[in-house]
Automatic annotation (TrEMBL):
<dbReference type="InterPro" id="IPR022674">
    <property type="entry name" value="G6P_DH_NAD-bd"/>
</dbReference>
<dbReference type="Pfam" id="PF00479">
    <property type="entry name" value="G6PD_N"/>
</dbReference>
<keyword id="KW-0313">Glucose metabolism</keyword>
<feature type="binding site">
    <location>
        <position position="159"/>
    </location>
    <ligand>
        <name>NADP(+)</name>
    </ligand>
</feature>
<comment type="function">
    <text>Catalyzes the oxidation of glucose 6-phosphate to 6-phosphogluconolactone.</text>
</comment>
<feature type="binding site">
    <location>
        <position position="337"/>
    </location>
    <ligand>
        <name>substrate</name>
    </ligand>
</feature>
<keyword id="KW-0521">NADP</keyword>
<protein>
    <recommendedName>
        <fullName>Glucose-6-phosphate 1-dehydrogenase</fullName>
        <ecNumber>1.1.1.49</ecNumber>
    </recommendedName>
</protein>
<dbReference type="InterPro" id="IPR001282">
    <property type="entry name" value="G6P_DH"/>
</dbReference>
<feature type="binding site">
    <location>
        <begin position="24"/>
        <end position="31"/>
    </location>
    <ligand>
        <name>NADP(+)</name>
    </ligand>
</feature>
<feature type="binding site">
    <location>
        <position position="193"/>
    </location>
    <ligand>
        <name>substrate</name>
    </ligand>
</feature>
<feature type="binding site">
    <location>
        <position position="246"/>
    </location>
    <ligand>
        <name>substrate</name>
    </ligand>
</feature>
<feature type="binding site">
    <location>
        <position position="189"/>
    </location>
    <ligand>
        <name>substrate</name>
    </ligand>
</feature>
<dbReference type="Pfam" id="PF02781">
    <property type="entry name" value="G6PD_C"/>
</dbReference>
<feature type="binding site">
    <location>
        <position position="227"/>
    </location>
    <ligand>
        <name>substrate</name>
    </ligand>
</feature>
<dbReference type="InterPro" id="IPR036291">
    <property type="entry name" value="NAD(P)-bd_dom_sf"/>
</dbReference>
<feature type="domain" description="Glucose-6-phosphate dehydrogenase C-terminal">
    <location>
        <begin position="200"/>
        <end position="478"/>
    </location>
</feature>
Length: 486
């Protein structure tokens, strides 16, 4: 009799009963991501058995419970994956209430939370989601401390996690005065993408890839997140932020932590985050000479943008990790607005074999981008191994070939969660694996200091391109995988 080779899959753990409080409930993030995301979790049967969601905002923007429900319905209709109707919607809608909060007048919120807790019954967990702009952050944290609402509660914190080392330290100090680190969930939606889990699976569940995942076999790594969209009217936000802070420190460095990490001792939050932070500690401080800052032509004419603005809408960097696994292997990072395509791609370039057995002319058609492992983490993503094969025919000619695994063609997407949905669920489960830790954040700002202190001048690029021309020299002797030949 054959024995099963796999233990049965463990069932999806279910979160304990919860009262979730959304600060910034009338804002853009709640509308686009949080309310639709929570409803999707309800549809997927992943919300706690009993829960309530309390929206909050300053008294000047207060809504009645009724209006908040209408607001949520509108948000789900506009941005959700399923329509706000049927019994699941009715149950979700009846779990919504509103309580305004100002530092001098927190009572409506305190009362709404108490009422929600009573409605849930027992001692539900409290989870605060701070979808508020940085200026409001300290006062909300202090309010949670002063009212006692913070007691035993968890808190989800939205980026930016500071804008430099000093502000990141100050922010962490503010948070830690009220919440110890074990209750803080700094959310980076890139870490909620399936691809991050999949990088772990690819590396650590197979005998094929991990043995190659080091300086012996890999010549360079690219983490490439071009965006086709421009700043979409967000001049006020973007002028003070720029691509380096908005995308690189936040999202791309976080991905780099997972691509480059050592195998964790076990797959739990502490081990994963320890390994991620070890990567950050090994990062060499950024050299401004290895950074290209770009600005798309026309940016300075956008409404709300300073006509002499030096803010970058594009950043490309070559960074190095000083550890035994990666010494000497350049990591190329790129992101920017108004580029040719919107993509999310991690590419590992494999070294050439040590001896060139095949005559040079056998490789005439090859452009130097064979020998690559390409992880495309669009939702749903794909993994491609690109290599050389013999072209059929009498002579020994080499041609490029792709071996592609595509999520869409291999699995149903029904069970997939978007970044925010995945992370909201993890926060309710109390699992910090895919949330950033304070020491990691501070280290990233520390290595960024030389660049922030002496940024190179911005170089113009035409919208619809791949950025300033100088990025080719940054990547040399390698070349950017994108644009790819599809
Ligand atoms: C956000 C940035 O965090 O991420 C935006 O503020 C950016 O500027 C967005 O467009 C990209 O996210 P995604 O998941 O669409 O690639």
């Amino acid at each position: 009799m054959t024995q099963p080779t796999q233990p049965a899959q463990s069932p999806q753990p279910s979160p304990a009963d919860h009262v979730i409080v959304l600060f910034g409930a009338t804002g853009d993030l709640a509308r686009r991501k949080l309310l639709p995301g929570l409803f999707h979790l309800a549809k997927a049967g992943l919300m706690p058995r009993r829960y309530r969601i309390v929206g909050s905002a300053p008294a000047a923007e207060a809504l009645s419970d009724q209006d908040f429900r209408a607001h949520a319905r509108q948000a789900v209709a506009e941005f959700g994956r399923s329509r706000p109707e049927g019994p699941v919607w009715q149950e979700f809608e009846s779990a919504l209430s509103f309580g305004s909060a100002d530092p001098a007048a927190p009572e409506p919120l305190v009362e709404a939370v108490r009422a929600a807790e009573q409605a849930v019954g027992g001692t539900p967990r409290r989870l605060f989601h701070l979808a508020v702009p940085p200026v409001a952050f300290t006062s909300v944290i202090e309010l949670l401390g002063a009212t006692g609402l913070a007691q035993d509660a968890r808190v989800i914190v939205e980026k930016p996690f500071g804008t430099d080392l000093a502000s990141a330290r100050a922010l962490n100090g503010t948070i830690h005065a009220v919440f110890d680190e074990s209750r803080v969930f700094r959310i980076d939606h890139f870490l909620g993408k399936e691809a991050v889990d999949n990088i772990l699976a690819l590396r650590f569940a197979n005998g094929l890839f991990e043995p190659l995942w080091n300086r012996e076999h890999i010549s360079h790594v690219q983490i490439d997140v071009p965006e086709q969209i421009d700043i979409q009217g967000r001049a006020h936000f973007f002028e003070g932020t720029g691509t380096f802070r908005d995308m690189i420190v936040t999202h791309l460095f976080q991905l780099l932590g997972f691509v480059a990490m050592e195998p964790p001792v076990v797959l739990d939050a502490q081990s994963l985050r320890d390994e991620q932070v070890k990567v950050f500690r090994s990062l060499r401080p950024l050299d401004p000479a290895h950074v290209v800052r770009g600005q798309y032509t026309g940016y300075r004419a956008e409404p709300g943008v300073d006509p002499a603005s030096d803010t970058e809408t594009f950043a490309a960097l070559r960074v190095e990790i000083d550890n035994w696994r990666w010494a000497g292997v350049p990591f190329l990072l790129r992101s920017g607005k108004a580029l040719a395509e919107g993509r999310h791609v991690v590419t590992l370039g494999l070294r050439e074999p040590v001896l060139g057995m095949f005559p040079l002319n056998a490789r005439a058609a090859v452009d130097g981008r064979s020998n690559e492992l390409v992880i495309d983490f669009a939702d749903p993503g794909s993994i491609t191994a690109r290599f050389l094969v013999k072209e059929p025919g009498p002579s020994m000619r080499l041609a490029e070939a792709d071996m592609v695994f595509g999520y869409r063609s291999s699995f149903t997407a029904d069970n997939s969660l978007e970044g925010y949905e995945h992370l909201l669920l993890e926060a309710m489960l109390g699992d910090q694996s895919f949330f950033t830790r304070s020491d990691g954040i501070e280290r990233l700002w520390e290595v960024s200091s030389p660049l922030l202190d002496a940024p190179p001048a911005v170089e113009p690029y035409a919208p619809g391109t791949w950025g300033p021309d100088s990025i080719d020299a940054l990547a040399a002797p390698h070349r950017w995988h994108l644009p790819d030949r599809r």
